[in-house]
């Protein structure tokens, strides 16, 4: 699309911008409410650029010194993989919703052996179990968390016979994907800065999660050696670069949002070239690659509320969260919150007598009853008379929608998802402009990126608006969002392999 066409699109009203077919004309009162919501939720290209400018500054500040708003965490991952990493590893992934344990075998460039490689040409094989994290764990204690994790590790090891194959003297190498902000003095050390994604487990913030996990594993006699603690964004970048050399960034658009990229050491002012940790983390012979993967933790962007277009609903979500004032950017754009924003808007309209009259809105009053997939299903509903959306609302909220209300929920789901996708483009745009990156692949993972079919298109369009691309039909964009390989499993195993190689060992 040409720049002028873009400008027309930006100035057009929501009615012209909407990608949805209309069902019914709305009553005038609802119509004007929708106009108001559109004004509050639409982020123009001009505003996106303003957000990106401040974003760049905050990314830079985080590289200057510790303790700034966006922490720009140093990860001790010094290079992208060669593609030839090999070995067998256990990986543990503590995500926002699940705990996943995998046995990953990396084949490197070896011609895959048809007996152990599930699909020809695949450079790894993987066996995994996913365990749903019980809700109460998220607000429990360190003791409960690590006991639960050690239980699952132990179950996995015995179910796969790995407890017989490995011993305490010859342990299985373990990689841990811990997707929360952490300060690392080494790759096998990670002090939790603050919980995000609604977690509130006592006794972990300010502590080294690697040490806590190690202690529990030792108490259980598990034959495992913790080699690395990584963030999911770094895992996504590394796993994708294992196959795709054009990978420039690993990004998660899921329950939370964040990204990682390779920075040159000289840009990281807070890390002195004579820092002894650099020497001990570099390859044998004390040489560094001159690079470092940075886990931005940019969900914290604009905690000062200087530029983000926050609505009263966003403020409500923040105030009711376990860590008010933190993760401001994430609270406007990540999967954990999109459904909650939607619920709060509907509840506000209901309380003002504009929708759902004479129906019991008890379920709508319960926080977090609506998740992101609810929004995407409403937006994608092409069933006759939107029967599917009506059915979903009946099941989730316990009442039927009138025609005008179906129309309203569809528009609202769209407004919230579009705002989220457009803001998500700002983080990546800030990294690219700061680093002078003009081409490459952004390896993206997470429920919003994968399960919301319109997300990638909306994200790409916003990125083009920010970077002033002259997009032409059929031409590939210079910066493309791709589907990341499995970062928390395969990516974590690759990082463990790179670390063992650096230490002169093989798994
Ligand atoms: C966490 C990050 C993580 C992101 C995506 C955020 O809440 O702080 O560490 O990368 O979610 O999972």
UniProtKB/TrEMBL annotation:
Keywords: ATP-binding, Glycolysis, Kinase, Nucleotide-binding, Transferase. One of its GO terms (biological process) is intracellular glucose homeostasis. Residues 34-242 form the Hexokinase N-terminal domain. It comes from Trematosphaeria pertusa. This is Phosphotransferase. Pathway: Carbohydrate metabolism; hexose metabolism; Carbohydrate degradation; glycolysis; D-glyceraldehyde 3-phosphate and glycerone phosphate from D-glucose: step 1/4. SUPFAM superfamilies: Actin-like ATPase domain. It comes from the Eukaryota. Belongs to the hexokinase family. GO terms for molecular function: ATP binding; D-glucose binding; fructokinase activity; glucokinase activity; mannokinase activity. It catalyses: D-fructose + ATP = D-fructose 6-phosphate + ADP + H(+); D-glucose + ATP = D-glucose 6-phosphate + ADP + H(+); a D-hexose + ATP = a D-hexose 6-phosphate + ADP + H(+). One of its GO terms (cellular component) is mitochondrion. Transmembrane segments: none annotated. Its EC number is 2.7.1.-. Residues 249-498 form the Hexokinase C-terminal domain.
């Amino acid at each position: 699309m040409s720049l002028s066409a873009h400008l027309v699109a930006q100035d057009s009203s929501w009615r012209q911008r909407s990608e949805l077919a209309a069902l019914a004309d709305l009553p005038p009162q609802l119509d004007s409410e929708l106009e108001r919501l559109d004004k509050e939720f639409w982020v123009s290209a001009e505003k996106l650029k303003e957000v990106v400018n401040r974003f760049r500054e905050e990314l830079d500040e985080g590289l200057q010194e510790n303790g700034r708003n966006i922490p720009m965490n140093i990860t001790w991952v010094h290079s992208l993989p060669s593609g030839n990493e090999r070995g067998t590893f256990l990986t543990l992934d503590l995500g926002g919703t699940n705990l996943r344990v995998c046995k990953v075998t990396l084949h490197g460039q070896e011609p895959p052996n048809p007996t152990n490689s599930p699909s020809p040409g695949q450079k790894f094989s993987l066996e995994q179990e996913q365990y749903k994290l019980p809700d109460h764990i998220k607000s429990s204690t360190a003791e409960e968390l690590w006991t639960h994790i050690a239980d699952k590790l132990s179950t996995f090891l015995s179910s796969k016979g790995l407890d017989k194959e490995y011993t305490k003297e010859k342990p299985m190498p373990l990689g841990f994907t811990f997707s929360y902000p952490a300060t690392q003095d080494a790759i096998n050390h990670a002090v939790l800065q603050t919980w995000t994604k609604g977690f509130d487990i006592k006794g972990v913030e300010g502590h080294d999660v690697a040490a806590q996990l190690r202690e529990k594993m030792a108490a259980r006699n598990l034959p495992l050696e913790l080699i690395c603690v990584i963030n999911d964004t770094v895992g996504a970048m590394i796993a994708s670069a294992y196959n795709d050399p054009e990978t420039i960034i690993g990004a998660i658009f899921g329950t939370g949002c964040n990204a990682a990229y390779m920075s040159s050491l000289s840009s990281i002012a807070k890390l002195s070239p004579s820092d002894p940790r650099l020497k001990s983390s570099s390859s044998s012979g004390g040489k560094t690659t001159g690079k470092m993967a940075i886990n931005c933790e940019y969900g914290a962007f604009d905690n000062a509320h200087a530029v983000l277009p926050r609505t009263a609903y966003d403020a409500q979500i923040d105030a009711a969260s376990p860590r008010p004032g933190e993760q401001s950017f994430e609270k406007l754009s990540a999967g954990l919150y999109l459904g909650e924003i939607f619920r709060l808007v509907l509840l506000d309209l209901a309380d003002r007598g504009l929708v759902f009259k004479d129906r019991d809105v008890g379920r709508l009053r319960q926080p977090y009853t609506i998740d992101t997939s609810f929004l995407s299903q409403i937006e994608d509903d092409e069933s006759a008379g939107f029967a599917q959306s009506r059915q979903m609302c009946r099941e989730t909220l316990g009442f039927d929608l009138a025609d005008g209300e179906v129309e309203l929920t569809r528009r609202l789901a769209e407004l919230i998802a579009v705002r989220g996708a457009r803001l998500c483009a700002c983080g990546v745009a800030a990294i690219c402009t700061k680093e002078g990156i003009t081409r490459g692949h952004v390896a993206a993972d997470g429920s919003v990126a994968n399960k919301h079919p319109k997300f990638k298109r909306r994200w790409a369009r916003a990125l083009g608006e920010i970077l002033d691309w002259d997009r032409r039909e059929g031409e590939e964009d210079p910066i493309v969002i791709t589907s990341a390989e499995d970062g928390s499993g395969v990516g974590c195993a690759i990082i463990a392999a790179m670390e063992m190689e650096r230490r002169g060992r093989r798994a």
